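Hello,

Our lab assistant flagged a job as stuck in the queue for most of the afternoon. It eventually completed. Since we weren't sure the result was trustworthy after the delay, we are filing this so someone can double-check. Below is the sequence as submitted and the structure that was eventually returned. Let us know if re-running is recommended.
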Amino acid sequence: MLANVKHLHMRIKNNSQRICTLLFIFFSLFQTLVAQSQTVTGKVVDAQGNGVPGATVSVRGSNAATQTGNDGTFTIQAPNTATLVVTSVGFGTQEIAASNAATVTLQATSLNLNEVVVTGYGTARRRDLTGSVATVREKDFNKGVITSPDQLIQGKAAGVLVINNTGQPGGSTTVRIRGTSSIRSGNQPLFVVDGVPLSGGSARPGGRGGDFGSDGGNPLNFINPNDIANIEILKDASATAIFGSRGANGVVLITTKRGQSGVPQLDISASTGLSNIVKRLEVLDANEYRQALKDYGLTTGDFGGNENAFDAITRTSITQNYNVALGGGSENGRYRISAGYLDQQGIIETSALKKITASLTSNFRFLESKKLGLDVNILVTQTNERIAPISSFVGFTGNLISQALQWNPTHSLRKPNDSIWIDPAVGATTINPLAQLAYFNDKANLNTVIASISPSYRITKELEYKFIYSANRQVGTRRGQVNRLLNAQGIEGRGVAFVSNQEQTNQQITNTLNFNKPLTSNINLNAVIGHEWLTFDSRGNSMSGQDFTNVGLNYYDVLQYTTQNSRGISSFASPTTELQSFFGRAIVNIMDRYLITGTIRADGSTRFGENNKYGYFPSVGLAWNVSNEDFLKTNDIINNLKLRLSWGKTGNQEFPSGASLNRFGFGQQSISQSNYGNEDLKWETSTTTNAGIDFSIIKNRFSGSVDYFYKKTTDVLFEQNIVQPAPGGRIWINLPGYVLNKGVEIMLTGGLMRSRDVNWNLMVNASFLQNTVEGLAGFYETGALRGQGFSNVRGQRLISGQPLNVWYLRKFEGIDKGTGQSVYTDQGNTLFYSGSPNPKMLLGLSSDFNYKKLTATVNMNGTFGHYLFNNTAASVLGIGNLGTRNIAKAIIGTGVTEAISNAPAPSTRNLEKGDYLKMANATLSYRIGNIGKSIRNLNISLTGQNLFVITKYTGFDPEVNTDAGVNGIPSLGVEYIPYPSARTILLGLNFSL
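-- returned structure --
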């Protein structure tokens, strides 16, 4: 019995121990499970308390990770004892215990070597780059009224020149990366938006007859700058060779914003502003004009009035800009839908730009393994322009700007009954600028759709296949008319009208394989191979006519009413351009110290002759991460030191489609050959050598880079007339000789002050450039100078031993005190090379200062060492106008009396230094923060744009480039009665819901 009791006791004891052990294990597992399934929420902010979107939050030691939403918030499953690692581009890494993750503050850093950089058909860590690549992030973009992406980066990267050619809303820009390389073909860089390369052109039609506005507009206007996340600028051949025949002028990669994981968030921004003219040219007012008439003994020309014609055509304009974006999703699928509306009045009466944009970006992951991906992007834009009658191709009658400048200030613009003067007493060929505004009507409309679909499949952890199909469709229309009442030659009593239509369709198919894997413990390979097929189609038509009657209808709506012999009709269809490419790139990282990048691309294009269909563009880049060597690892000063060296070839095919073919022009029942084919026509090739150094010191607080480049462009594409006695026509050839660009680029960034409440950062970039032409047989002329006394005058040459577009002019020595006539060296019989329009130095300055919730940002840019020709002063406001038209104030009271008979002539008299430093934009913003439970991250800002310019240039704006090209040869540095620049004050508001 006792034995049984003891046995039972032992069983109970053993079972109790087992039960306790099981309970202990159960509770331990329960606690572990609870800990593993615990939801950790928090927010990632910068030093000013602003939410940081897109930051990566991961659990150290596991694969668990997420990204912050647009307001910086995140949710992640993690043990309470875990450590969270938080990283974001442009910020230092922060580690924090999950239990303390309510708020994670990241400090901005001037360098993030682990930052992923878009390199074209793939990505790479910044530390692995061997080429020259500049990154401009959203927080560093220029502020103000921005209509296109290129304006965001003006002054932001060394070696990059951006000129706003005109003040017209939506006007064109000139963009040069490391100088001008081509004589006849395009010099603009290649722009790529989310992997879709753009054609560089636009379907916006030009005007026809009647001196309609001649600026071609900006082909990038369809992109909403508010949708852009960052911009990468690829400058040397190691970076651009992957784009082969289109990379010679540099490549600009635009990445748009993406949706972030989390609950849906609505981002709203709105701004409104006022704009006025930056600078008025000094002409005589009515009293000064009367005094000048008296001083010169003129008894006519005083009509007793007091008029300011320039005030009459300008205004304080209003700009409104509204943007809204909805984003959200999960790790399996993210989306962002955005819409924008811009309504920008021009400072010239009647001119305006309205732009409506909408976009969808989305990416999805399928299958349990998440190996199958799909990206879908759609961008839709409509732009509507009212274009001012400001043409750069006018002669002595001028355009709206010259008509206002020249208007006799003693003559009224309106009659006593308030109607507009026509054929005033100051001369039948003098056009009243108010009449020019009233009787011109010029409208352009452009609709753009870019759609892309990109499935991808991760074959293994290291290997991914990606397919892209994109279509870019643009349809443009333009309607213009000039009323028969305007007293313009060829218009008065007749009128003129036109309707033009143009369309472009571009398609892309790209297949790539990306491989990224450590081959050994010391060697990592990041490689891509691919095939690409691109097509570009462009066609259009136009109708015009004259001899209308004013019956209350728009002329362009009743073109059939015109006289038969005044009607014109034309249409065109450019030969389809096809580009087939094979490419590959490999980046080898050895021990995180030695880097090798090799790239090759083979391009076959229908633009080239049968004997040169394919071009081959190789490059190689080497880099040494010196700071990872043992002798620098333990130092406390140098955090990063990299030496780079690269060499490679890139091409240029930016010239008319079908240039290598026999082409014919069609007239009324007639056909004539306009272009003779050239089977040997080949690629224009740029060979670039680049040496650079990247560095950062004092805990990455200060960083920078220095690059030297040597770029030689050979086989220069050129169109020329066929030498007689051969049949008349034109032919494209490859010129002998070459264009050389070389220079040094310096970029420095520093955190001058860093604390919890105060942060001050400064960025400076400077470029020193040299441009020459060598080995060219003979010379070519361009730089058309226009206006009274400038008929068929060209002021620039392309000739060996000189920079591109060198000025070639008479040398002005002054005004003869005895005769009042201009004195020229050698009586003006000899012309001299007189300087370059190409800047020798580019400068960019940016600074941001933060104090608690207050932020001040300043952006400046400038160019130096070049000369501009002030064609406005030369031919519009000369002394010969006195008695009928107005003159420049600067030519009166100089101590030397210039004779009225002193005829204007192209000379160095009006060649001026173009040096300037401009306060491009300055912003003061205040972060109010959250209001209640709905409004988050409320921010209010005040921005000034084009606040002031430091310059000795006497024209409207030293940042100018009026189209003065001749026979397709571009010019640079001419100012001829352009649309003036505007100064804008903008009030902005943005918040999230």
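-- support follow-up --
The delay was a queue issue, not a problem with the job. The result is valid. Confidence is low (pLDDT under 50) at residues 1-13, 22-37. Helices lie at 2-36, 237-240, 286-295, 309-313, 400-406, 433-439, 630-633, 871-875.
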